């Protein structure tokens, strides 16, 4: 799959979003594209794994609580497969311990919904620079 | 021959003519007389066991023979039957031919002059057709009858003949008396036999019935689906049925060495003994008790017993009868259910609010997140060069949509979870109490309960949620009525009262005269009591306690000195300044959140 070209014709980095939340899947791609990236959305970890995108994905924006395979589980699976994609976890749950846990797992970022656009951009940049 | 009166002339008693006989003749005559006497004296032996007719026949034969009569006649009075018997025997050469009846008539007429029962003497004979005819009475007063003998010999009857006649009459009388006696004896014997037979039959029948009744009872006792135990008034077992024996693991013989209190769990012994006492004193006709027995192997078993006093009969003294049902299963499930409820309540308490919050948060967070993201996108699109107005329009549209979504969620949730929102206010506990009692008075009275109120005059106001506190009061009232449901030997009294409690508190108490609780249970009821009341207003003691606790108060139960319990709660008084301030604030701007 070819990442869409931006207005300036440059190749855009692909960001993949995996969230069972429909409003997230609806609103994030536009914002990500405004940031200057390309975006693909998936409604489940399984859908992402069976897609052809994880080669191209430069950064993964991953919901934590999902039916079926959870975000952290997907992250572990990718690690197992040797796919080290920088991952930003997003969640609506206000549980203090989750942040520590996922960061220990090697997350590149953690955001509580609802998050501001600037917060997201900062996390993406951090994740991409760390890669 | 003419048998009319004309032919009969009365004679005076014959003179005793001196018959001069030769001595040899005399000796012969006397010998003959003696022989005849002996014969006569033997007659009763012959007659024994015979019939009257037999006797008469023999008598007449003998008389005809030894006295060489022309005829001999006997009449028996009606001692032997309804009809007087008349028998006439005539010799071959008799000068007369009459029926006994005809002769009887003649004789009656002849002796009609004699008073009834007087004795015709041998000398009082008469002549009939040339025959010398003499009557001889049978029986001392002639009550048995009469013999009449007749001969054509002149001078009849002579001395010896008179003697023989007397003896014959005597013997006949004896014989006939004996027959009568025997007959009477036979009759009595027959009647006795009959009576005995009837009695025996009746007795046999009664015994049969008794046996059948006993078998029926036995069958019921043995085959009953519940345990049945009979004890004497001291509680010692008399009889037990198989179900009871299986329930407890003892044989009937083993039971007979025990009293039922021996196998009752220690906790229940006092209560049990008390109820038995009331039963024996006649205060109740039966009682029901749920208690634990201890089996022979030591295991406890829960039973529901129904015990009654069985009145005695003349042969059997009073005894106690217990119908015993094993409710171990039910108790176990009740306990399991209570435990499960307890755990559920705990969990519910902990999680319900949390769950609610999480649920609300989740429902609202989604559109909120969408709004924020889309708005961020919108701003960026508008500040791009050139501005992406089309994109901005789309994000704005989504934003409005999500805003509405969030609003819908709030509305929906509000509808789902709304009762009146709790609103603490400064309130008068007495007034609240009066409202509750007024509402529930008919229900209380219908349960046969007398309600009294003692509400303190000077009760200061409290801060509290009126609806919630009224629910607590209603709960306490209902529990009190329930506690008195089974009381029928004393008045069902419910006393509700309010008073100051110390400096800063107000106390409300509900006192009943019901069954009470054991001291161990006084705390447990707050955990174990759950509402299952279907009318929607019901709340249990655990929730009541929570409400009171939320008001910074305390709810507890205590046993009365007399019967029953008193449930009380205390609540802090309204602080003067604070209460007023809150009220003012509410009035000024109702849309502001309460402080």
Report on this model:
The complex is a heterodimer of chains A (about 130) and B (about 600). By secondary structure, chain A is of the alpha/beta class. Chain A has a single domain (about 15-130), classed as Rossmann fold (3-Layer(aba) Sandwich). Helices cover about 40% and strands about 20% of the residues of chain A. A 5-stranded parallel beta sheet of chain A has the order 2-1-3-4-5, with helices on both faces. The two termini of chain A are about 20 Å apart. The model of chain A has no long low-confidence stretch (mean pLDDT about 85). By secondary structure, chain B is an alpha+beta fold. Chain B folds into 4 domains: about 5-185, 2-Layer Sandwich (Beta-Lactamase), CATH 3.30.450.40; about 225-325, Beta-Lactamase, CATH 3.30.450.20; about 335-415, Helix Hairpins (Orthogonal Bundle); about 425-590, Histidine kinase-like ATPase, C-terminal domain (Heat Shock Protein 90), CATH 3.30.565.10. Chain B is built from 14 helices and 18 strands. Chain B has helices at about 25-45, 50-65, 100-110, 160-225, 240-250, 250-255, 265-280, 330-385, 390-415, 430-445, 465-485, 520-530, 540-550, 575-590, and strands spanning about 10, 70-75, 85-90, 125-130, 130-140, 145-150, 225-230, 235-240, 285-295, 300-310, 320-325, 425, 450-455, 460-465, 495-500, 505-510, 555-560, 565-570. In chain B, helix 2 (about 50-65) runs antiparallel to helix 4 (about 160-225), helix 8 (about 330-385) runs antiparallel to helix 9 (about 390-415) and helix 10 (about 430-445) packs parallel to helix 11 (about 465-485). The chains are: A alpha/beta (about 130), B alpha+beta (about 600). At the A-B interface, helix 1 of A face helix 8 and helix 9 of B.
């Amino acid at each position: 799959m070819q990442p869409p070209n931006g207005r300036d014709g440059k190749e855009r980095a692909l960001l993949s979003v995996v969230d069972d939340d429909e409003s997230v899947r609806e609103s994030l791609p536009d914002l990500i594209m405004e940031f200057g990236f390309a975006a693909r959305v998936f409604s489940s970890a399984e859908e992402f794994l069976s897609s052809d995108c994880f080669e191209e994905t430069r950064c993964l924006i991953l919901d934590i609580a999902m039916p079926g395979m959870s975000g952290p589980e997907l992250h572990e699976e990718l690690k197992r497969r040797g796919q080290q994609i920088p991952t930003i976890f997003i969640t609506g749950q206000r549980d203090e311990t989750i942040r520590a846990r996922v960061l220990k797992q090697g997350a590149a970022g953690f955001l509580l919904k609802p998050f501001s656009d600037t917060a997201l951009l900062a996390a993406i940049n951090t994740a991409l620079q760390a890669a | 021959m003419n048998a009319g009166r004309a032919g009969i002339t009365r004679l005076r008693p014959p003179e005793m003519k001196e018959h001069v006989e030769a001595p040899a003749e005399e000796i012969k005559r006397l010998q003959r007389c003696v022989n005849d006497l002996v014969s006569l004296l033997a007659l009763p032996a012959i007659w024994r066991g015979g019939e009257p007719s037999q006797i008469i026949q023999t008598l007449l034969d003998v008389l005809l023979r030894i006295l060489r009569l022309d005829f001999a006649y006997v009449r028996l009075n009606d001692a032997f039957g309804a009809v007087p018997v008349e028998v006439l025997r005539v010799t071959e050469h008799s000068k007369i031919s009459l029926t006994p009846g005809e002769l009887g008539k003649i004789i009656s007429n002849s002796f009609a002059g004699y008073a009834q029962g007087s004795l015709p003497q041998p000398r009082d004979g008469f002549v009939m057709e040339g025959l010398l005819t003499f009557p001889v009475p049978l029986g001392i007063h002639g009550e048995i009858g009469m013999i009449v003998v007749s001969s054509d010999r002149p001078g009849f009857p002579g001395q010896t003949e008179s003697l023989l006649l007397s003896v014959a009459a005597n013997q006949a009388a004896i014989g006939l008396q004996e027959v009568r006696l025997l007959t009477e004896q036979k009759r009595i014997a027959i009647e006795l036999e009959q009576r005995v037979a009837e009695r025996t039959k009746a007795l046999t029948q009664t015994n049969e019935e008794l046996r059948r009744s006993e078998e029926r009872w036995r069958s019921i006792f043995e085959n009953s689906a519940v345990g049945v135990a009979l004890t004497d008034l001291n509680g010692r077992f008399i009889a037990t049925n198989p179900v009871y024996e299986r329930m407890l693991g003892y044989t009937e013989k083993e039971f007979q060495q025990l009293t039922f209190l021996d196998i009752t769990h220690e906790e229940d012994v006092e209560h049990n003994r008390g109820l038995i006492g009331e039963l024996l004193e006649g205060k109740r006709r039966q009682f029901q008790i749920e208690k634990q027995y201890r089996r022979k192997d030591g295991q406890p078993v829960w039973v529901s017993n129904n015990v009654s006093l069985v009145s005695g009969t003349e042969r059997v003294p009073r005894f106690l009868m217990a119908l015993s049902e094993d409710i171990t299963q039910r108790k176990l499930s009740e306990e399991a259910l209570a435990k499960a409820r307890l755990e559920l309540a705990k969990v519910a308490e902990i999680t319900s609010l949390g769950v609610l919050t999480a649920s609300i948060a989740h429902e609202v967070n989604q559109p909120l997140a969408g709004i924020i993201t889309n708005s961020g996108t919108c701003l960026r699109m508008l500040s791009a060069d050139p501005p992406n107005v089309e994109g901005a329009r789309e994000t704005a549209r989504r934003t409005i949509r999500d805003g509405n979504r969030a609003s819908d969620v709030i509305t929906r949730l509000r509808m789902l979870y709304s009762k009146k929102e709790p609103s603490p206010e400064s309130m008068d506990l007495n007034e609240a109490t009066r409202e509750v009692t007024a509402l529930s008075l008919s229900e209380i009275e219908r349960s046969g309960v007398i309600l009294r109120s003692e509400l303190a005059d000077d009760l200061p106001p409290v801060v509290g949620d009126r609806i919630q506190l009224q629910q607590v009061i209603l709960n306490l009232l209902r529990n009190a009525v329930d506690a008195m449901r089974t009381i029928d030997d004393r008045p069902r009294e419910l006393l509700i009262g309010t008073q100051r409690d110390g400096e800063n508190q107000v106390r409300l108490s509900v006192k009943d005269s019901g069954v009470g609780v054991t001291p161990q249970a006084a705390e447990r009821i707050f955990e174990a009591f759950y509402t299952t009341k279907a009318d929607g207003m019901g709340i249990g003691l655990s929730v009541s306690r929570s409400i009171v606790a939320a008001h910074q108060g305390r709810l507890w139960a205590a046993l009365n000195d007399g019967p029953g319990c008193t449930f009380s709660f205390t609540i802090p008084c309204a602080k003067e300044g604070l209460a007023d301030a809150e009220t003012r604030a509410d009035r000024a701007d109702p849309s502001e959140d309460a402080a």
